[in-house]
Amino acid sequence: MFDPHDPLGIDDLLTDEDRAVRDTVRQWAADRVLPHIAQWYESGELPVVRELARELGAIGALGMQLSGYGCAGASAVQYGLACLELEAADSGIRSLVSVQGSLAMYAIHRFGSEEQKQRWLPAMAAGETIGCFGLTEPDHGSDPAGMRTYAKRDAGGDWVLTGRKMWITNGSVAGVAVVWAQTDGGIRGFVVPTDRPGLSAPEIRHKWSLRASVTSELVLDEVRLPADAVLPEATGLRGPLSCLSHARYGIVWGSMGAARTSFETALDYARTREQFGKPIGAFQLTQAKLADMAVELHKGILLAHHLGRRMDAGTLRPEQVSFGKLNNVREAIEICRTARTVLGANGISLEYPVMRHATNLESVLTYEGTVEMHQLVLGKALTGLDAFR
């Protein structure tokens, strides 16, 4: 039988364990996020972020793609399915998990010392400690090599960090920040407890996107750290960029969650909303919209599955992640916009999730690499010519 919600039979690609992970995250989101998300979005806050983090830790969703230190050791596909279900609820919830697991925890797990891993990762996996990731600066987003945040050594061997980071998810609620800074020896990463003197994280307000998400600045005013605060295995931009590639992979999946919710909302609406004596889904133009949305949605999910299998096999390249991020977020926004037209004026109401997802995706389109950056990554891979500068 043809399933309008899975027209290509993609579920057949999943193992029983994959489905169990997906269903666990989907049920958690239905119970804990969906009843409240419109209110959180309208008020522009996520008041229970610490409580949600602990619950996400309890179901194994934080750093789930990592092994050891209390992490679930899930497959890349299972992590992707979790991202899809979280973003089907709201992009801000998926961002909480992505920054925690794919940026802050991944950086410590991949580049940290054993002491750093033992100190931070178990508490972060449990959601007892929230992490953030400081790379972007007010004047340096797509070009992180130009960052001005600087770490210098003093005579006693300590590091002293000074600078500002911008658009930091989880910043004001984080207990630990992974901060990237210029040093005399190149760009290095630092594990920074957020209670250190000189560090503050003023929250960014007045956002029209990702409103149910904590977004902050990080201000570092001569923050003193011990010599062992540096991530020993990361030198240069390769460290933070590998973290970003890992986070972008989650976005490839997550964006399809936002698109799925918007498509299914439009499909249900088209079946029940009547005009000119019959449901609007019976009109050719509406069916054309639904068909086009379904095609792009499930092509995107197939692409996400393909990249997930490659990641699990150890063959996924950063250029392929750029391919997925560029395509899936761009198509997800178009699906949301088309779904909004099916709902007509109701599409702009928070009684329906479509406009919330559309505005959230405007941020997702930009962060973890803008459209232009991913186009240039692919352009260089296709031509062998570097057009970044």
From TrEMBL:
<dbReference type="Pfam" id="PF00441">
    <property type="entry name" value="Acyl-CoA_dh_1"/>
</dbReference>
<dbReference type="GO" id="GO:0046949">
    <property type="term" value="P:fatty-acyl-CoA biosynthetic process"/>
</dbReference>
<protein>
    <submittedName>
        <fullName>Acyl-CoA dehydrogenase</fullName>
    </submittedName>
</protein>
<dbReference type="GO" id="GO:0050660">
    <property type="term" value="F:flavin adenine dinucleotide binding"/>
</dbReference>
<keyword id="KW-0285">Flavoprotein</keyword>
<feature type="domain" description="Acyl-CoA dehydrogenase/oxidase C-terminal">
    <location>
        <begin position="236"/>
        <end position="382"/>
    </location>
</feature>
<dbReference type="InterPro" id="IPR036250">
    <property type="entry name" value="AcylCo_DH-like_C"/>
</dbReference>
<dbReference type="InterPro" id="IPR009100">
    <property type="entry name" value="AcylCoA_DH/oxidase_NM_dom_sf"/>
</dbReference>
<feature type="domain" description="Acyl-CoA dehydrogenase/oxidase N-terminal">
    <location>
        <begin position="15"/>
        <end position="128"/>
    </location>
</feature>
<dbReference type="InterPro" id="IPR046373">
    <property type="entry name" value="Acyl-CoA_Oxase/DH_mid-dom_sf"/>
</dbReference>
<dbReference type="InterPro" id="IPR037069">
    <property type="entry name" value="AcylCoA_DH/ox_N_sf"/>
</dbReference>
<dbReference type="Pfam" id="PF02771">
    <property type="entry name" value="Acyl-CoA_dh_N"/>
</dbReference>
<dbReference type="Pfam" id="PF02770">
    <property type="entry name" value="Acyl-CoA_dh_M"/>
</dbReference>
<feature type="domain" description="Acyl-CoA oxidase/dehydrogenase middle">
    <location>
        <begin position="132"/>
        <end position="223"/>
    </location>
</feature>
<keyword id="KW-0274">FAD</keyword>
<keyword id="KW-0560">Oxidoreductase</keyword>
<comment type="similarity">
    <text>Belongs to the acyl-CoA dehydrogenase family.</text>
</comment>
<dbReference type="InterPro" id="IPR009075">
    <property type="entry name" value="AcylCo_DH/oxidase_C"/>
</dbReference>
<dbReference type="InterPro" id="IPR006091">
    <property type="entry name" value="Acyl-CoA_Oxase/DH_mid-dom"/>
</dbReference>
<dbReference type="InterPro" id="IPR013786">
    <property type="entry name" value="AcylCoA_DH/ox_N"/>
</dbReference>
<dbReference type="GO" id="GO:0004361">
    <property type="term" value="F:glutaryl-CoA dehydrogenase activity"/>
</dbReference>
<dbReference type="GO" id="GO:0000062">
    <property type="term" value="F:fatty-acyl-CoA binding"/>
</dbReference>
<dbReference type="GO" id="GO:0033539">
    <property type="term" value="P:fatty acid beta-oxidation using acyl-CoA dehydrogenase"/>
</dbReference>
<keyword id="KW-0809">Transit peptide</keyword>
<dbReference type="InterPro" id="IPR052033">
    <property type="entry name" value="Glutaryl-CoA_DH_mitochondrial"/>
</dbReference>
